[in-house]
């Protein structure tokens, strides 16, 4: 798999996304049908047990899967989540790595899957998602 260079600091694969910056998500790699990010553990992202909150896990999965659907750091199109299914398999403790793949991309819809793993390799969560591809038009929104 060929993967492009690491994105510039403060950029989320060509996009400014304040919520991802707030969560502390680190964009690492993007390439054709692939994206990888990481989430350093922070206490303010945890639930009452000290594990990363499930809503945080779903948010970083949603972003990373949509980045895999784009497959490029060029922000010439956007992704709108149609559907996302997440299965939680173990607690999100410590630093986490999120990897996503685009399984199929048509003219207007993309289908993706991805995982979150702990530093020890333990699978934390797995998600599948469907995205509507939104092409940016010159002079449009």
From TrEMBL:
Residues making up the signal peptide according to the UniProt record: none
Keywords, ordered alphabetically: Hydrolase
One term of GO molecular function: fatty acyl-CoA hydrolase activity
Database matches in SUPFAM superfamilies: Thioesterase/thiol ester dehydrase-isomerase
Keyword field contains Hydrolase: yes
Positions of the Thioesterase domain: 50-125
Hydrolase found in the keyword field: yes
InterPro entries noted in UniProt: ACOT13 (IPR039298), HotDog_dom_sf (IPR029069), PAAI_dom (IPR003736), Thioestr_dom (IPR006683)
PANTHER family: ACYL-COENZYME A THIOESTERASE 13 (PTHR21660:SF1), THIOESTERASE SUPERFAMILY MEMBER-RELATED (PTHR21660)
The family this protein is said to belong to: Belongs to the thioesterase PaaI family.
Name of the featured protein: Thioesterase domain-containing protein
Gene source species: Achromobacter insuavis
């Amino acid at each position: 798999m060929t993967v492009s260079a690491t994105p510039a600091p403060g950029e989320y694969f060509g996009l400014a996304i304040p919520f991802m910056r707030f969560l502390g998500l680190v964009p690492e790699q993007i390439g054709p049908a692939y994206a990888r990010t990481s989430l350093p553990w922070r206490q303010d992202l945890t639930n009452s047990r000290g594990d990363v909150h499930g809503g945080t896990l779903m948010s970083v999965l949603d972003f990373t899967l949509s980045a895999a659907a784009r497959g490029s750091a060029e922000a010439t199109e956007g992704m709108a989540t149609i559907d996302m299914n997440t299965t939680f398999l173990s607690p999100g403790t410590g630093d986490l790595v999120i990897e996503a793949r685009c399984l199929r991309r048509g003219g207007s819809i993309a289908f993706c899957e991805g995982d979150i793993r702990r530093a020890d390799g333990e699978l934390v969560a797995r998600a599948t998602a469907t995205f509507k591809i939104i092409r940016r038009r010159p002079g449009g929104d």
